[in-house]
Amino acid sequence: MALLVNPANPTLAEINSKELQEAARALGLELHILNASTERDFDGAFAKLIQLRAGGLVIGIDTLFTSRSEQLAALAIRHGVPTIHYNREFAVAGGLLSYGAGSTDAYRLAGNYTGRVLRGDKPTDLPIQQGTKVELFINLKTAKALGITIPNAIEGRADELIE
To answer: pTM to 2 decimals?
Structure first.
């Protein structure tokens, strides 16, 4: 497996790398870290991915990657690599899977925080909260193009199947 991170955003890259390295170790998988800090780096990252013969790619959380979902999805299909990202837009753009915190849940939490601050609560006194809703989006057209059969049990758990 491989993880794509943006080294120009070191805090996020480190968090993504650390969490996925721990998960990979627990599953007995080797995780390769690939870097891209501009869209010009994408081709090199995919070339390295192919050279490593990685079985799949996790695209880390970063605004660069989110804003270039279509380009990353097209590269993944062209190179025949199953790829996952955290937001729905990636699957809509042609990526295989999107799995992550639901944006509606995140907006609700942000609204709650904003309301509390506007009512006079100090931001430093507010508890840290995480969203509880995780969403799964599967692009069936991409799965077919990659020769992947999505099990019915997984399709049944998806929030949306994109065709």
So the answer is: 0.82
The 10s digit of each residue's pLDDT in 57-72 is 999 999 999 999 999 9
Backbone angles phi, psi at 16, to 5 degrees: -60, -50
Cα–Cα distance, 161 to 73 (Å, whole number):
16
CATH architecture of the domain 2-101+134-162 equals 3-Layer(aba) Sandwich (3.40)
| pLDDT value at residue 100 | 85
Nearest 5°: phi and psi at 134?
Answer: -110, 135
Task: Give the DSSP letter string of 74-92.
Answer: HHHHHHT--EEESSHHHHH
pLDDT in tens, 89-104: 999 999 999 998 766 7
pLDDT-derived band at 126, boundaries 50, 70, 90: confident
Domain residue ranges of the chain, discontinuous segments joined by +: 2-101+134-162
CA angle, corner 12, sides to 108 and 159, nearest 5? 45
